[in-house]
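FAQ: What does a ligand-bound record look like?

Like this one, built around cytidine-5'-monophosphate:
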Amino acid sequence: MSASGRVAGLVPAAGAGLRLGGGIPKAWRPLAGRPMVAYAVDVLAAVCDVVVVATPPGYEADGAVNVLGGATRAASVRAMLAALPPDVAYVLVHDAARPYAPISLASRVLAALRSGERAVVPVLPVVDTVKLVDAASYVLETPDRAMLRAVQTPQGFERALLDEAHASAADATDDAGLVEALGVRVLTVAGDELAGKITTPADLVAASGLR
Ligand code: C5P
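The answer part, i.e. the structure of the complex:
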């Protein structure tokens, strides 16, 4: 893998974002006067040669190649991978719902890829104790918190590896999960407190005060 290969940034933004409400897709909810997705495009554009956004029908993102999303998040990523030029060597996949992710975070993930890692995810330590529970809400297990990490985006991959991970029709909440299923090691690097995910209306209100 060439350390100087071209880089693509992908933003899966085709979901309805039902938990946020508001009647328009989450990624197009305004934040400080711009659709939320614009911030994800900006951060990727700072470190990538091409940026692709998977959109819901009827919506477009400025400054990116727009591709119609699929029925699942993974299908949307597959649609974006299919639209990439052949000379792209590295791919960063970034949630539209993390508008404050700093450019330094994307740079850190990309630097690890360029140094030879095949799959890289930014993480933070988990501050709450986490329980594994059964369907009847009884605790099954308490994992050792020191070994747990909360995963953020952008997540970075060798392009060929991400193509392989998405070759099946599997779905996953993140792309690294599909890569892990191939038996490939995924490196964690330091995440950033600013790169939190906007999921609920309260998150959006808190975020509006920051921009
Ligand atoms: O719903 P959730 O927060 O897990 O979605 C994660 C991301 O995947 C969101 O940015 C959403 O817009 C995107 N997505 C997509 N295509 C879908 C479903 C979700 O691009 N069909």
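Follow-up question: can I read anything off the structure? Yes, for example: The radius of gyration is 17 Å.
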